[in-house]
Known about the structure:
The two termini are 26 Å apart. The relative contact order is 0.14. The chain folds into two domains: 3-142 and 342-487, 3-Layer(bba) Sandwich (FAD/NAD(P)-binding domain); 151-207 and 251-339, 3-Layer(bba) Sandwich (FAD/NAD(P)-binding domain), CATH 3.50.50.60. 30% of the residues lie in helices and 19% in strands. Strand 9, helix 4 and strand 10 form a beta-alpha-beta unit. The protein is built from 13 helices and 22 strands. By secondary structure, it is of the alpha/beta class. The protein is globular.
Amino acid sequence: MSASDHPHYRVVILGAGMSGLCMAIELRKHGMGDFTVLEKAEGVGGTWRENTYPGVACDVPSHLYSFSFELNPDWSHAFSGGEEIRAYCERCVDRYGLEPHLQFDAEVQALAFDGDRWQLQLTDGRQLCADLVVSGLGGLHRPNHAAIEGRDSFAGHLFHTAEWDHQHDLAGSRVAIIGTGASAAQVLPSIAPVAGKVTVFQRSAAWVFPRMARDISPQRRARYRRFPALMRLHRWLLWLLMDVLGTLSLRRGSALQARLERRAKDFLEQEVQDPETRRKLTPDYAAGCKRRCISDDYLASFNRPNVELVTDMITRIEAGGIRDASGTLHEVDTIIEATGFKPFDIHEYVDIRGRDGVRLQEQWRHRVESYRTVMAPGFPNFFMLLGPNSATGHTSALIMIESQARFVIHCLRLLARRNARHVEPTADATRRFNFRIQRDMQKMVFSGGCNAWYTDEQDHNYTLWPYSALRFCAEFLRLKPEELKIGR
Length: 488
C-alpha cells in the first residue's frame, strides 16, 4: 500500500487518558470532527486505568482535578480515588460523543514526518497518516523499575505499583516496599493491616503533609447539583488558594516555605512515636525539591509493630529477600516497587522522526527542551500535552492540559487563516523560552541538587513549571506568530 492508501485524519491523538480526552473534547467543541484517538489499552483513563494499587487516589482536591467545562457535583470524597476518576473519564466520553473517535488496542510504534504529513506505524502493523499529531501520552507513562542487582533471582513475587497483581494475596505475607514517594504513601497504610510484616526501604525521606481527607456529604453533593455556581465558586477558591500559596511556598528561602516545613515537622512529631524512626523520616532537603507527599495515615503506619523502616542502601536482591549495605538480609515473600515513572520518555518508546528524518531521541539526547512546553523545533504539526516543563508541584495538572489543548486549537485556526499546512517553533524562540524557564527555576526549590526525578544529571529541570498556574494560562492565551515557522 502507498501512503495515500492509509486512513487519513486531520488530527491523530495519542492516548485516551485525561490529556487525550481533553484534546478530543476541544476538537468537538470547535466543530472539528476529523480526528481519531489511538489508545494502546482496551479502555480510557490513562493513569487512572493503569494504576489500581490499594489506596490509589489523587492528591489534588476532586473539584480541582476535573475539567473546568465538566464539573462533577457527585465526587464522593475530597480527594477522589482512582476508580472514581476513571469513571469520570468514561462519563466524559459519553457526554461529548467521543466513542466513534476512539480506537482501542492501537499502540503507536513510530511517527515520521514525510515533508507533508505524519505517517504513523502501529505495533500490530496497521498504518495511518495525519496532518497533525497530538501526544496525550503524558510525562509519566512507563514504570521506572529499580535497577538493583539480582532482581531476576528473587524466588518470591515482585511487581511495580503501576502493574499491581491483584491475584497475589498479601495476607500474612512478608512484604518489602522499595521507595517512599507518593505511591508508597498510599500503598503502605492500605496493606500494613493485612500483611504479616512490611519492610520499607527508604533512599531519602519525603516531606509529608496532612491530607485532611474527608467524605463529601450527600447533602453537599445535592446542593452542588442544584446550584452549579456554588460548585464553580468552590473550584475557583481552591485554585486561587493552591496556586498563590503553592507558588509562594516553592520559592527558595520564602517565609511560607519555612512555615510549611515547620508544619510538616510538627506533623511528623505528632504522628510517629519512636524518636529514632522520626529521625529517619526527617528530610534533609528543602520541602518541594522533591515531590511532597499528602497523607493522613502514612507516617502513623510506622507505629505498627509489623512495619519496619530501613535506610541502609539496598545492595542486591537475592532469592530469599533484600540485602542492604549493612550486610543484613531482609527475608521477604513479596517485593513491591514504589519507584515512580520515567519522566518525559516518549522519545524512548515511540520512534519519532521529524523534518529530514531527525529523531526526537537524538534531539533530546543531551537536554530535553520544548517550545512553550508543547512543541519542538523541527517537528511540524506535532504537539505534546503535559510536555516538558508543564508539570506542577502545587496544583492540578488539568489546568495545564486545558491550556495546551486550546493552544493546539489556536494553531489549527492559524493554519486555516493563513491557508497553510505546517506550523513549528523556531529554534531561536525555543532557546529563549528555555533560557527564561531555567533562569527563573533557580529562584525555586526545585533546583536544589536533591537528586529529584524532576532533573537530569546536570540539575537541569525539564519537568516542572516554575511559575503559577495562572501565569501558565495567561501565557497560552494567544499565539506568537513571530516565533513560529508557518509553511504552505
